[in-house]
Each structure stands twice: as structure tokens, then as C-alpha cells.
Design goal:
Order of helices and strands of chain A: HEHEHEHEHHHHEEEHEHEHHHHEE
Number of domains of chain A: 1
Largest interface: A-B, 74 and 73 residues
Radius of gyration of chain A: 19 Å
Oligomer: homodimer
CATH superfamily of chain A: Thiolase/Chalcone synthase
Strand content of chain A: 15-25%
Largest sheet of chain A: 5 strands, mixed
Low-confidence stretches of chain A: none
Number of helices of chain A: 14
CATH class of chain A: Alpha Beta
Distance between the termini of chain A: 36 Å
Mean pLDDT of chain A: 95
Chain lengths: ~400, ~400
């Protein structure tokens, strides 16, 4: 499996040009009354204005979206390029289920690093609130190995419940420990004006909430959200024309796991997370200790616990324990999801990965207000598709 | 609009490494009784075997697909990677409507050129035959600017009919000239064992066929097809380990047009075609005269006529005339669609752009049998999304 860390990757790491996260933008997450296309424009406008560039300086457009067909609209590329007033730039849509945002960012990053473009816009956008919960759950299940998983009734809450049970069985993780993740993320979201939920909850609230797929209860699950987030990725040379505060993309990791849970060696672990993390760290030439906070993919509370383990921030099996002990709190040793995460900030599928990057931008710029992670200079985003079939991971560092 | 031809592009052209089309594969196009996922595996297997590599040498997977959600399956990346026995490689799906195949190929090419990977598999796949014609036409219309075009009843036959009327009005193009495109492509497909149609037709047959959207009749329109095509893209260094006959990717052009027809200056022209062609020619350092044949996007007969004009192989407005005169026949001055084109080879949306590249591979290797374009060394693929919102274009040349 080390083909990803092989010769071409090493060569490229030596010759690549430096790439900067020039700016980001985001709508509020939650229920919105516009189309995914319109939401994308709002997020893009904010990113363009923050960057201080003109729309016509955008040289390519990378969109991430999964469900726009339910709005009767595909082929978002030329549509959004046209609305932005640049109906000639190359534009495309990328899909890797819930990891689409991170994957679109990676492709944009790769193209800038390679020298194709100097300034690229990434927009993740999603609208699902026009679907009822059963329909939305069904559509979401198409991200699993439908023929063998969903067709037998295993929707995502069911699949993550299986992962949670495996984790409890193997490592003694408790429902209280999982609940502590939800409590922490809801607490963080209180200070995020763009979060879907602004509601303080307790461990008791989580444990008492309705069972969705045992052992997961309502408050263990992220919501269906609408929303859009945008990021502008630029060459260092281009970025320097607009700002002195440069946030560098230090590492990018991309990997796949066996699509279906039954194909995994350990159902309580996501191998793609580990693979992508190793790539990104190697490229960034950084150690885990140098990373100040993480935005991880907590579609369910167990997902955050698995993420911090598979990323190597604690021993495998210790994720529940350290969450419960407050290690991952905003003022803890390794803050996780200061934004509120998918759990409380919300999870507009195509937007999520780009939204994580929006949080990184605001934090590293020192603009995160009451949820600021003090002195944050380096951060990681970890974006997962489905039950971990896809992982797209990035490490960012603010230049001194 | 010349931002695409600007400094980063020029710099990159100087430093990029050479990229080779190592092999291709394809299912028969038409109606297939397997899922898009399974069709993809068949095409991939052929490409891998022809290349002489092992599956585990594939370092990344670029999929193009538009309608797999209608089969209740998204997130094809890890699914196909798993089935190929490489459930760790980065994998993703790209969508730009009917140009998805060309766009996926471009992204794979860019990543190899940049040095990320040495060997990448591109697979375009589509299954639509489980949808009835009205449903399929409706889903296809989501590739237009749905809110402003399709919602008013303008499905793709309607939109291309409007383009045809504009072309007839401005340039005097006739229904007979359009029919000659269909006759030629059906003739070519007779010799393509993987084509959807093996049926010789006459101009008379076309003119007498059922009106779909005047002036377009049934035989002016490509069919709904299922199918999958694959391509292996490799660095020159990697490719040389497996073959002495190297087909180089010489140029790659990508551009967008205003999404909706009503936003275009001239409804009888697709500006993205011209933009992408200029990029690719500049990069390839080739002239049109050096190109031996074209695979162009003939979703409707008028589309082939516009393509050869917008690509610059004749004066604007002359496309119908030269088609009728046999200039674009397999033994003509500039052979167009020796494969049979979308019109007769078929149009499995996500596969189409990769299928064009499959034809280029077979022709440049001299393996096209009775449809061989004699002495072909250089070829162009032109893949369009919707009414031209997207264009993805590539130029290939066989090394001496």
C-alpha cells in the first residue's frame, strides 16, 4: 500500500511550488431557502471579497456537490462560472460522497501546485432540506456499497452503529464517552454564528435522546444541513500581491478504504484516514505535536473518536477516553472541531470539506472570535466519504 | 478571455513531463444488462491487460459518470477501486454532463504531468437503459440551465433544434446536409464491433424519420446508450517499461461557455470549443493540418457541423457543405468520427469522452480494422457537455 508514498510523490514534493489558502467564505449552515447554485454564489462572493481579487482573476472553478440532481440541476460548472461573470474558465464538479469538498480542494491545490493556474476557486454546496428525512436518508445511503449494504437496510446510521458496537466491544468505549463528543461540539458551535445548531446539551440529553440505530441516539448524529463554503487557492506569488499573511497548504493526503464495511479488517477503524495522514505529514515535514487543532469528520460521535485514533493523536481505542477527559476541548491539549464539527456546525454534504477549511482560515487568521483556539498556527482538516471509503486530508500552516 | 493562455499555462508547458496514453478498453455500447459499476470493471480489465500492467500498479482512479444515482449508487471511487483489488488508491468521480469523460481524462493527465502519479486509470461508465425515454430525457435536461431552459420545456433535442435553426438561418445550412452527417457516421459504425448501431441509412431515411424537435428528426439524434470505456495514462518513463509504441498526449484544452443558450452571442456556435482548441494547439505546437482525424461530439448532427467549424477545420458556416461533399468521410480530407461518433457508436454519457480516446488509441495503433484511417499518426478528441457549457479537448500523437 505504500505506492502512494513512492517515487513520484517524493519527486513532486521536492519540485512543487508553494500554494496558499488566500481566503474563504461560507453561508450559514442549516435550512436555506435558495438553491445549491445560489448558495454557492454567496459563499464565493465572500471569498472573493476577502481575497481582494476580481472575479475575472479566477482561472478555474472546482465544485463539490452530491445531490443537486434532486434539485433537477447537474452540470453546475458552467452555471456557476456564468453567474460569477467568468463563463469561459474550466469548471467541473467532483463527487466522493461526504468527502467531496476535501477532494475538490485537493484537485484545485494539485493544479495550482503543478503550475496550471495561479488562482482557483473551490466551492462546495448542498441543498437537501427539500427532501423529507426518509428520502434524504435513502439518497445518502447511495454513498455506501448500495448493492450489498443499503439494500439490506443498512443506512448510514446503521453502518456507523455497527462501527460503534465494534469499537465498544474491542476497546470498551462507552455511550457516555460518545455523548461527550456531542456535548463538546455543541458547546463549540454556540460561538459559531454560521453553525446549524446553537443549543447547549448535556451528556444526559444525549443519552436520553431518541434511539436512531442503537447505540447511536439522535444527538450522536449530525443533522441534514444546507449550505455552501468557498475557498480561494493561489500560488504564493499571486497571493503575495494581496496579503502579507500567508496560510500555506503544507500537505495533502488522499486515500480509499474498502468500500463496504464487511471488507474491512477492523470495523472500528478507517484505514484511509491513516494512509492519508501519513502522506500529508510526510509532505508537510511536520509532526503531530506541531498541529494546533483538528477539524475532523464527526458525522456521528463515534466517527470523531475513530478519527483522532486513526490520525494517531492517541492510541487506538483511547479516543473515547480522551474525549471524555476534555483533551479535545477547545482549551484542551488537542482541540478537535472548534467550529462545532459536522455534529453541531452542520453537514451540507458537498460543502463540509470546504467548510472545515473555512474554519481553519478563520482560526489561523485569528478571526474566530469566542471560539478562537489561542495561538493556532497549524491545523488539519480530515474529510471522510461514507463509512470511510474516501479520505481527503489537508494540513495548513500560517507563515510567520 | 485569454487568461487561460496566460503566464502559468506557458510556464507549465515548458516544464511539464511527457504523458503517454498507454492503453484503452471499452465495452460494447448499447443496452447492457449490468450496472455502471460492473461495466466499468470490464472496460478497466481490457485496458489493464492491453497495457500489460498489474492492477496494483494503478496509483489513482478517475471516474466519469453522471447518472449512477438513478441506479441508487454514488461514491463510485472506492467501490471500483475495491473491485479492482486496490482499495487504497485515491479515487473520485468527475461530472461535467456529457463532457465528463474528457474532463476526467484531463484531470488524470494533469496529475501525471505534474508528477503526482506515474500510472492512472480513467474509467467512464454509464447505465441509463433502465429509464424510460421520457425519464431519461428529463434527467438529461438537468445538464442545461434547468431553472431557465428545461423548466420551460426546452430539453436537449429542443435546444439543439434551436441551434440548428439558427445555423440554417445564418449560414443556409440544409436538413440534407445535416442528414449527410448521420449517414456518414452510421456507415463508419458498420465497421466498429462495439458500436450501438450497425445499420446503414440513407439521406432519405433521415429526412423521413420521425420529427423529434424540428428541424431535428430521429436520425439526427444520438441514442441513449449504456457502456463503459477506460484509458491508462502514464508518465513516459513508466510507459517505456511496457511498450515501444508511445502515444503522447500533446495538448489538453478545457473551457466553459455561458451555460444557457440565451446568454450566447451566437446560438450557432460553441465558444468553449474554440477556446479549448486554441489552448491545446498552442500546447501541442501543432497546426490543424497535422491532425489526421477528429473524434467530435455529435450528439446531434448539427453538433458535428458546429464542431468542425468552431475547431477551425473550415470557415464558420461551411460545416454542412463540407459534410455533404464527403470531406469528413473516413477517406476524406479530414476524417471525422471514424468510430461512428455519438450518433452511431452510441453515447453512454460518462463513457463518451473516454470512448473517443479509445478510438484514437485503436486508430493510432493501426488496430481499427476496416474503419482504419490510413496512416493516422495524430488525432483530436472533442467532448462537449450539454449545449456546449463545457468543452474538454485533447490532441494525441504517436511517436515515430
Amino acid at each position: 500500500m505504500n505506492i502512494l508514498l513512492g517515487e513520484p510523490f517524493r519527486k513532486w514534493c521536492k519540485t512543487m511550488r508553494k500554494v496558499v489558502l488566500l481566503s474563504t467564505g461560507s453561508t450559514k449552515y442549516g435550512r436555506i431557502d435558495v438553491t445549491a447554485r445560489e448558495a454557492a454564489l454567496t459563499a464565493a462572493k465572500e471569498a472573493v471579497e476577502k481575497a481582494g481579487i476580481e472575479n475575472r482573476e479566477i482561472q478555474a472553478l472546482y465544485i463539490s456537490n452530491v445531490f443537486s440532481m434532486t434539485e433537477r440541476q447537474g452540470h453546475l460548472g458552467p452555471l456557476i462560472a456564468t453567474s460569477l461573470g467568468v463563463p469561459w474558465i474550466p469548471a467541473l464538479t467532483i463527487e466522493t460522497a461526504c468527502a467531496s469538498g476535501g477532494t475538490a480542494f485537493r484537485e484545485a491545490y494539485a493544479n495550482v501546485a503543478a503550475g496550471f493556474y495561479d488562482c482557483v476557486l473551490v466551492v462546495g454546496t448542498e441543498k437537501v432540506s427539500h427532501l423529507d428525512v426518509v428520502t434524504a436518508t435513502t439518497y445518502f445511503s447511495y454513498g455506501s456499497d448500495y448493492q450489498f449494504e443499503a439494500v439490506n437496510g443498512a443506512s448510514f446510521p446503521g453502518l456507523y452503529a455497527a462501527m460503534a458496537r465494534a469499537h465498544m466491544h474491542q476497546y470498551g468505549t462507552t455511550e457516555e464517552q460518545m455523548a461527550s463528543v456531542a456535548v463538546k461540539n455543541h458547546e463549540n458551535a454556540l460561538h459559531n454564528p454560521k453553525a446549524h445548531f446553537h443549543k447547549k446539551i448535556t451528556v444526559e440529553d444525549v443519552l436520553k435522546s431518541r434511539v436512531i440505530a442503537s447505540p447511536l441516539k439522535l444527538y450522536d448524529c449530525c443533522p441534514f444541513s444546507d449550505g455552501a463554503s468557498a475557498a480561494i487557492v493561489a500560488s504564493e506569488e499571486f497571493a503575495k500581491k494581496y496579503t502579507d499573511t500567508l496560510i500555506y497548504v503544507m500537505g495533502s493526503g488522499r486515500a480509499t478504504s474498502p468500500a463496504a464495511l464487511f471488507d474491512r479488517e477492523n470495523m472500528a477503524s478507517i484505514p484511509a484516514t491513516n494512509l492519508a495522514m501519513n502522506q500529508a505529514l510526510k509532505q508537510a515535514k511536520l509532526s503531530r505535536k506541531e498541529i494546533d487543532f483538528l477539524e475532523v469528520h464527526d458525522c456521528f460521535t463515534i466517527a470523531e473518536i475513530m478519527a483522532i485514533e486513526d490520525l494517531g493523536f492517541c492510541e487506538k481505542g483511547e479516543g473515547g477516553k480522551i474525549s471524555d477527559e476534555g483533551v479535545t476541548a477547545r482549551d484542551g491539549e488537542i482541540p478537535v472541531n472548534p467550529s462545532g464539527g459536522l455534529k453541531a456546525k452542520g453537514h451540507p454534504v458537498g460543502a463540509t470539506g470546504v467548510g472545515q477549511i473555512n474554519e481553519v482560515y478563520e482560526q489561523l487568521m485569528g478571526e474566530a472570535g469566542k471560539r478562537q483556539v489561542e495561538g493556532a498556527m497549524t491545523a488539519l482538516t480530515h474529510n471522510i466519504g461514507a463509512t470511510g471509503g474516501t479520505c481527503s486530508l489537508h494540513i495548513f500552516r500560517r507563515g510567520d
